[in-house]
């Protein structure tokens, strides 16, 4: 049977310029292009937009010469931070200025003495309720913010002659700087005038995952055939059923219009290593579980997602009452099986840690078990 490229056939039906879209996508996502490649792509985009030769040169010169230090963190982190974490009022106040680059932002977490060790950071933010301000202070040399890209001046030559020497990476220290409380981005967390800290949990990257899902579903629908054949020929492509189009196409549109995939890529890919390897997060959870285990004998009952640990004696002794396959359809049976397995794992781990000379040595030696 002759192989048919169904996706190519579907792309040929597009009512927009697919090649032009690829160019725009590449500019947003490919940070490894050479200067000439980038300029060639920019020329193609500007030609597509029917901009004159003089405007092309001016636009490219401004993009490549005037703004290289600000393109990455200003557009990739500062603006998305305001959009994702700022209240509506804060967005109205700052976004218009940021888009026009009348205010410029960067990201200053790393400290000279601490790298990505967030718990070891020394810069302090002390709330002053009298003046409704945060006092930001860098008390030591090692608390200096080191390497923030996009500030004025520069720390000097960096290792190698590559990309980092083409941008400014500065050093920053705060000397009891007063910042009004309402300058804190307060959409997902805030400090009240009464010194209460309030935080909401927001699953910010769900839209990205859903965008992947609808892309997969659309591609599969273009390849899969089902029903519709009356004379023994090929069955109908699933994508050609109007009901399938009604379900998928609005979602595809939403994914491109609202998910801002290039921006999500720039913002969330680094999230894998902001605080080091993700193993660090697993170890933090493990420490919390070990602390909860240590408090079981005190009469303090676990709450929330660890409430089941209050039944640890039962879970260590219980046996599943599953008798036949259909019993696994009971959510309570599955839940108890997981609870029993987890309880036995964390009790065994806690016992092994208790046999070590110190708790810290136990955590170091048994880190694989904790993960």
Number of H/I helices? 14
Total beta strand runs:
7
Mean pLDDT across residues: 80
Structural class: mainly alpha
Widest β-sheet, arrangement of strands: 1-2-5
Radius of gyration: 28 Å
Helical residue percent?
40-55%
Broad CATH class of the domain at 104-199: Mainly Beta
The name of the CATH architecture of the domain at 104-199 is Beta Barrel
Tell me the series of helices and strands, N- to C-terminal.
HHHHHHEEEEEEEHHHHHHHH
Range of strand content:
5-15%
Distance between the termini: 50 Å
The biggest sheet, with number of strands, parallel, antiparallel or mixed sense and barrel status, is: 3 strands, antiparallel
**Unreliable residue runs:** 50-70
Give the CATH H-level superfamily of the domain at 104-199: Butyryl-CoA Dehydrogenase, subunit A, domain 2
Task: Give the CATH topology of the domain at 104-199.
Answer: Butyryl-CoA Dehydrogenase, subunit A, domain 2
Per the principal axes of the C-alpha atoms, what is the gross shape?
Answer: flat
């Amino acid at each position: 049977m002759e192989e048919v490229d169904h996706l190519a056939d579907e792309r040929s039906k597009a009512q927009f310029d697919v090649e032009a879209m690829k160019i725009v996508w590449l500019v947003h996502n490919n940070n490894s292009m050479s200067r000439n490649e980038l300029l060639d792509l920019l020329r193609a985009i500007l030609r597509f937009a029917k901009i004159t030769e003089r405007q092309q040169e001016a636009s490219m010169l401004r993009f490549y010469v005037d703004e290289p230090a600000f393109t990455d963190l200003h557009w990739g982190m500062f603006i998305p931070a305001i959009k994702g974490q700022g209240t509506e009022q804060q967005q109205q106040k700052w976004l218009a200025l940021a888009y026009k680059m009348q205010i410029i932002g960067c990201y200053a977490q790393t400290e000279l003495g601490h790298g990505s060790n967030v718990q070891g950071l020394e810069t302090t933010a002390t709330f002053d309720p009298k003046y409704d301000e945060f006092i930001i202070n860098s008390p030591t040399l090692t608390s200096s913010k080191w390497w923030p890209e996009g500030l004025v001046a520069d720390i000097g030559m960096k290792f190698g002659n590559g990309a980092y020497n083409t941008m400014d990476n500065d050093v920053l220290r705060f000397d009891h700087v007063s910042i009004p409380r309402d300058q804190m981005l307060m959409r997902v967390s805030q400090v009240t005038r009464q010194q209460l800290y309030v935080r909401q949990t927001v699953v910010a990257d769900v839209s990205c995952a859903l965008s992947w899902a609808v892309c997969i579903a659309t591609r599969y629908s273009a390849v899969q055939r089902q029903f519709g054949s009356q004379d023994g020929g090929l069955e109908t492509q699933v994508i050609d059923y109007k009901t399938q189009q009604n379900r998928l196409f609005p979602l595809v549109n939403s994914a491109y219009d609202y998910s801002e995939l290039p921006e999500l890529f720039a913002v969330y890919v680094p999230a894998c290593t902001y605080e080091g390897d993700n193993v660090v997060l697993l170890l933090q959870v493990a420490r919390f579980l070990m602390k909860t285990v240590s408090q079981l004998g005190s009469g303090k009952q676990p709450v929330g997602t660890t409430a089941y640990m209050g039944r640890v004696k039962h879970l260590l002794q219980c046996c599943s009452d599953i008798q036949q396959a259909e019993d696994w359809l009971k959510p309570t049976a599955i839940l108890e099986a997981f609870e029993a397995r987890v309880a036995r794992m964390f009790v065994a781990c806690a016992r092994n840690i208790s046999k070590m000379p110190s708790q810290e040595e136990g955590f170091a030696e048994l880190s694989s078990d904790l993960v």
